[in-house]
Each structure stands twice: as structure tokens, then as C-alpha cells.
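Issue: ligand-bound run for glutamine - logging full I/O for the record.

Environment: standard queue, default settings, no custom constraints.

Inputs:
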Amino acid sequence: MKTASNTKRTKFIFITGGVLSSLGKGLTAASIGALLECRGLTVTFQKLDPYINVDPGTMNPFQHGEVYVTDDGAETDLDMGHYERYTDAVMTQINNYTSGRIYYSVITKERRGEYLGGTVQVIPHITDEIKAAVLQLDGSVDIAIIEIGGTIGDIEGLPFVEAIRQLRGDLGKEYSLFIHLTLVPYIKTAGEVKTKPTQHSVKELRADGIQPDILVCRSEVPLTSELKAKISLFCSVPQDAVVTARDVDSIYEVPLNLHKEGLDNKILELLNVWTGQPNIKPWQNLVKNLKNPKHKVTIAITGKYVDLTESYKSLHEALIHGGISNLSKVELRYLNAEELETGNPAELLEGCDGILVPGGFGKRGAEGKISAITFARENKIPFFGICLGMQLAVVEYSRLVVGIRTAHSSELDPATPDPVIYLCKEWYDYRNDKVQVRDENSDMGGTLRLGAYPCTLIPDTLASVAYKTEEISERHRHRYEFNNAYREQLESGGLVVSGTSPDNNLVEIVELADHPWFLGCQFHPEFKSKPMRPHPLFKDFIKAALTYNQNNR
Ligand code: GLN
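Outputs:
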């Protein structure tokens, strides 16, 4: 790894978390980035995850939440999604490291003999590798925000904490800042908030050699100045560097609340950066629109991971963004696709103004998703199919409209005589400028079509109306594709292919002409939606749902 050659020196903010997980470190990091951008500074991020998996690509979404995909095809932690949604920063392979990836790199070097027979140790070899990963960002932006995953005190996190401790010494005070996020719980029976967990967490952090510069205290209630004074005294953090992160209704309120608490001011004071006052108007307008919707639509999401909305994080946000641009509240109804297999779709989908079948792997619930698609198609309810959702829309259309009764995806039924969705054995990978070859026995990790691919749109389709352009680029994460052997038959049966790869080989978008809004895409548009710039497909899907709602309720 080498350091960027640019001459600009980047200042680093390191964010750690204490007491418990899920306090919102990722959102705090993203919000700080947003506030710094509002002051005209450039920012980037890095997430250092202590687990041993080399990347989150193979991790179960139940355990870990969504796998977020970047333009360059990295399978990353869902916090990358927060960073990209809140700022203009573009995340790539170098913005997310796990312990596994760090160790992998050190062990590879050791096998190559690069350590010249020395004993390879956590300090300095692992910590040096972490520091080099962090310092790759030096010179690229004004401020880099580095989030350490997990909680202070975790055994796995120690090498990362040690590396950032050392970086303070290497970079100096005006180029490094420690922010610690902690919990100040409200105890109902005592009727008061308690600072002890924060004191303990800071004690633990100090034992690792880090004195926090700023404490962000997550709390149900605003902290009074007395409480801040108490925390300040026990933790040796100036009182104006103790800020409250209050629970909020919408995650998009977080930047404004932290700004009100003076967090961005304090950060810049400590890093000795001078800017004008931030322009927070866009965030104020966003929150105002979110809190005062004029309409309401209900969208059904039929999936496998319905019990855990974290698995559909970006999707959930993209739908909210689509709502913002239509001044509409979007109520999401997660439906277990397996229930749709036995239940009555009309009953289960009663009251829904739009139906969305998201991405997924494996055949569980597939037939239930297909019956939801039939219901949407026949009843002219707006339908949006994403990745697996698009593939199943093709299966549904083939079976019920075109009459290919045995049509299926070969992922879900390897023996199907009519694989309308199949494992495409060769495709042109433009990023590596080579034809990729794979078959059913290929390694699971290496055979996904991942990251941004270009797509050409056909004029006068729902897709081209939404995007208002002919060339787009969207992110992928899938293995199976539309089978061109059936393309002519399906097209003459009424299916509209409205987007393809520029060489016309891969079908990227399908839609229906005699339906108000029925569209399936092979890519994941949800990864590119931002609250300030809602994705065109989500915007139009919600618009269609709103029209459906107004005509039918
Ligand atoms: N399982 C399907 C495939 O591999 C779809 C993947 C997805 O929805 N992300 O092609």
C-alpha cells in the first residue's frame, strides 16, 4: 500500500463507540461528513471492521445487515451506504477494511518472505498494515473520517485501537481527532439519566492509550449543562466538547441536531480549520419536507429477510427518498413471501399502492413472490422488481402470459427445461476489459457480476422517461441473467426490453407496455439514491403508487 502522492495533507477524525453497539456510529460519522461538506470541505470515510471475514460479501444479511456494493464492485459494510447517501464521497475498495483483510495481506507478505525471517507480530506488523490502510487516504481530501467498528473493550478491535493511538503520535494533534460515541441511558424508575456507563467507557478507552477529544452522548433526552459538566469532569473532556445525540424520528435530522449542539464548530476548532458558517439549508428543507408530507402511499415489500429491515437498508432509504420527491410519506409493509405461497394475495396485499420484489438469493418464497407479481400485473398495481425481483417478473410473464409453463430461473430449479433466467457462462467485463467465463461449479465468491456496469436505454420507455437520458450506469450484484434464447419470444409476447448492456448482450431492464408502471431491473438502483437526489426509478415508482392511491381509494 502506498500513500497518495498529492501534497494536500488530510486531517483525520477517528470515531470509536462505547457501552453498546447500535448507537449509530455510522450515522454520526456520515452526519459529521455532511456538516463538513456544508462548509465547503471535501471529505472521505473509512470503516475498519474488526471481524475476521475478508469482506462482508458472504455474510448472512440476518446477522450483518445489507451488503452494500460500490461502483468499483466492493462488497462492503452497510455504513458505506450512509456515507454515500449523506455526502458526495465515493466509496471504493479502500474505504472498508476488516481484520480478515488486514491479516490476509500480512500473512501473504509473510509467505512471500517479505519480512525477511523476522517474527511477525500484532505490533508492529498488523498495526503498520492498518496504519498504511488509513494513510492511503492522505492527500485525497480535506478531512477523512475513520470509523472503528464494534465497541471499545472488544478483543477483536484492539489492533485497530492501537493503530489509531499510534497515528495520533505520527500525525499530531491538528491532524487527528478522537471522537467517542457513548450511551447516557435514561433510567425510568430513577427518573434520571446516568453517566456511569460513559465514565467506564472512557476509562476503558484511556486504558488503551486514547483520551477522547469529543464525546458524543446518545440519549433519549437532551443533556443539561449540569450533566455535561459532570461528564466533562470525570472524562477530562471540555464541557463544550460534550454533545448530545438525541434519539430522532428520522435519521436525516441527525446532522442538524449535531450542528445545534456545536459539534462541527468544535471539530474545526480542534483541527484548526477555518471555514465560513455552514450552509445547512438543504438539510433543513429535507427535514421540513419529510415531516410535512401531503400524501401517503403504502408499499409492500415481499422478501425473505422480512424480519430484519437492516437487510434492506438502502432499499428502505431509497423508497423514503422517492417519497420525499413526491411530498409523500411512504409506509412500508414487509411481507413474508412464504406466506404469499399459501395465502390469498388479494387479502395479504390489500391496501397496498405499490408492490416491490427486492433482490435475494435462493428459492425460498419464490412462488409467493411470483403470485405477488401476478397480482400486481393483473390488477395494474405499480410494480418494481429489483435483481431477483426482475428475474421473477420474467419467469412470471413467461409462464402466465407467453405460455411457457415450465419457465424458471436455473438458480431456483437447475433442471428446468425452460431457463428464461440462466447462468450466463461468458460476459464482457468492461472494468477488467476481458470476457469472464464461469460455470455451475465456479467458486461462489468470484463469479458474481459486481459493481457499476453501463446500460443503454430504449427511448419512450418507463426507464427512459425516468432517467431522462439514454446512457446510465448502475450497480450489480448477481450471478444469473436474462436468457437471450427466449428474448424474441418474450418480446413478441409483449415484454418490453427497455435497457441493455451497450453491446445489447445483457438485458438490464424489462417493463410492460399495457400497465401504468411495471418495471424490473437487473441492477440495484437503491445503492445510488440520496435524500437530496432521489433515484429516478424510485421517484417514478412512488409517483405511480400515488396515482394508483388517488384513483383507487
Ligand atoms: N440470486 C440472483 C442472482 O444471483 C439475484 C441476486 C440478487 O437479487 N442480488 O442472479
